Amino acid sequence: MSLTDDLLRANARYATEQFTGSDLQVRPLRHIAILTCMDSRYTAQGVLGLALGDAHVIRNAGGRVTEDAIRSLVLSAALLGTRACVVIHHSDCGLFGQSDEELRQRVAEVAGARATFGFLPFADLEQSVRDDLHALQASPYFPPDYEIIGFTYDVRTGRLKHIEP
Amino acid sequence: MSLTDDLLRANARYATEQFTGSDLQVRPLRHIAILTCMDSRYTAQGVLGLALGDAHVIRNAGGRVTEDAIRSLVLSAALLGTRACVVIHHSDCGLFGQSDEELRQRVAEVAGARATFGFLPFADLEQSVRDDLHALQASPYFPPDYEIIGFTYDVRTGRLKHIEP
């Protein structure tokens, strides 16, 4: 069976046996947006005890504040009413302790082309959260009362740690 | 109780009552990366019947192929061994039928500053998936055998529809 057919079969099971969200609306009920890593080992909803419909979830490599993350968070706030962003970076991240040079070399080996962009690696987990909180604070595109909260997440224990800006 | 304290309390319940993933490793078990919208009403894992540990999940406003999504997907493939990307856009998306001018106006009303960047709205759901599949196909940074799959997701039924490139 192809991957496409396999995923469609799994989705048919979801739609018939588990799907319950048909009354939920586009605006998140708890007015929160989460920005976190693409890591496979956790969901933002699980870690924060959120239900479907509660929060926007933005994920990228590292959970970094990029132009695209700001595009998404600004839309979330201005168009869909979120009033807080929760930034979560995690332990054992693939970006930790790497250099852009090492990552470009690895991409060139696998794909045959050398990346012209950077990958946003980091060397200090808590500092990377603080850096990204500061980047959000510096953006002029959020409402005056917008709240910005930072955590680290430990993939071995399931626990968050609060990081002050 | 502050939002931070509320989230930490919910996370403490998660860590003690639900957390089970302590043996999972950084490389996704099923070698898949999902790119989808930040929408609150579904999780990528739920819709595709995936377990924790199975797949990277990249989310942004619309599930669009941006430079940051490519940064994340390329890292996922070259560094962490994923071999397929699944792009999912959904019905009732906040970006559907909007214009950049309307969105910039809305941000200016809420935040007091006019955005200098675009928000990637779209007018045709299936075409937006095809456009993003083509953007991935045009990138030189993926391995030769990398598979690219597109779906739309109906938030009212829970069902995926396969979209050919």
How would you describe the overall organization of this protein?
Two copies of one chain form a homodimer. Chain A has 165 residues and is of the alpha/beta class. Chain A has a single domain, classed as Carbonic anhydrase (Beta-carbonic Anhydrase, Chain A), CATH 3.40.1050. The first copy, chain A, has five helices and five strands; from the N terminus they run αβαβαβααββ. In chain A, strands 2-1-3-4-5 form a five-stranded mixed β-sheet. The longest helix of chain A has 15 residues, at 3-17. The first copy, chain A, is globular. Chains A and B meet through α1, α2, β2, α3 and α4 of A and α1, α2, β2, α3 and α4 of B.
Short description:
Chain A is an alpha/beta fold and 165 residues long. Chain A has 5 helices and 5 strands, in the order αβαβαβααββ.
State the main characteristics.
5 strands, Beta-carbonic Anhydrase, Chain A, 165 residues, 5 helices, alpha/beta, 5-stranded mixed sheet, homodimer
Q: Could you state the order of secondary-structure elements of chain A as H and E? A: HEHEHEHHEE
How big a fraction of the residues of chain A is strand? 15-25%
* Major β-sheet strand ordering of chain A: 2-1-3-4-5
Q: Provide the number of structural domains of chain A.
A: 1
Shape of chain A: globular
Q: Unreliable stretches of chain A, pLDDT < 50, 5 or more residues?
A: none
CATH architecture of chain A: 3-Layer(aba) Sandwich
Protein chains sharing the most extensive interface: A-B, 91 and 91 residues
**Span of the ends, CA to CA of chain A:** 49 Å
Based on DSSP secondary structure assignment, what is the total number of beta strands of chain A?
5
How can the largest sheet of chain A be summarized?
Answer: 5 strands, mixed
User: Helical amount among residues of chain A, as a percent range?
Assistant: 25-40%
The CATH topology annotation of chain A reads as Beta-carbonic Anhydrase, Chain A
Q: Assign the CATH superfamily of chain A.
A: Carbonic anhydrase
Q: What value does the average pLDDT of chain A take? A: 97
Q: What structural class do the secondary elements of chain A suggest? A: alpha/beta
**C-alpha Rg of chain A, in Å?**
18 Å
